[in-house]
Amino acid sequence: MVIVLMVAEKPSLAESLAKILSNGRYQTRKGGNGACSIHEYHGPFLGYNDAFFKFTSVCGHVISVDFPGKYNNWDKVEPVEFFDAPIIKKEADSQLHMPKFLQSEVCSV
C-alpha cells in the first residue's frame, strides 16, 4: 500500500482538504505534539487504488533563521557580507515541537 503524507499551512485547511479529497470519509486523531491533528483516509493516488493518506498541518512557523550576533548591527556590516554570512537555524516555537511531530509522522509512513 502507498502512504501519502500531506502537510497544509493551517489546521483548518488540512481538515477542509481532507474532507473534500476523502468525500467526507476521514478519521481524525491528535498528533504527538498535542497541537495538530492528523486526518486519515483511503483513496486512489497516481494509479494506486488504495493509498493511505495522512493529512496534517503545521501550527505557526517550523524553523526560524537568523544571522550570528556580529551581523545584528547593520550600520557596522557591509551589505555584501550577508551573502556569505552563516545562517543559524532553530526551532521557531520549542513548545510545539513541530520538527519532531512532522518527523514522527514521516517515520510512521
From TrEMBL:
It is an enzyme of class 5 (isomerase). GO terms for biological process: DNA recombination; DNA repair; DNA topological change. GO terms for molecular function: DNA binding; DNA topoisomerase type I (single strand cut, ATP-independent) activity. GO terms for cellular component: nucleus. It catalyses: ATP-independent breakage of single-stranded DNA, followed by passage and rejoining. Keywords: DNA-binding, Isomerase, Topoisomerase. Its EC number is 5.6.2.1. Introduces a single-strand break via transesterification at a target site in duplex DNA. Releases the supercoiling and torsional tension of DNA introduced during the DNA replication and transcription by transiently cleaving and rejoining one strand of the DNA duplex. The scissile phosphodiester is attacked by the catalytic tyrosine of the enzyme, resulting in the formation of a DNA-(5'-phosphotyrosyl)-enzyme intermediate and the expulsion of a 3'-OH DNA strand. Belongs to the type IA topoisomerase family. This is DNA topoisomerase. It comes from Tetranychus urticae.
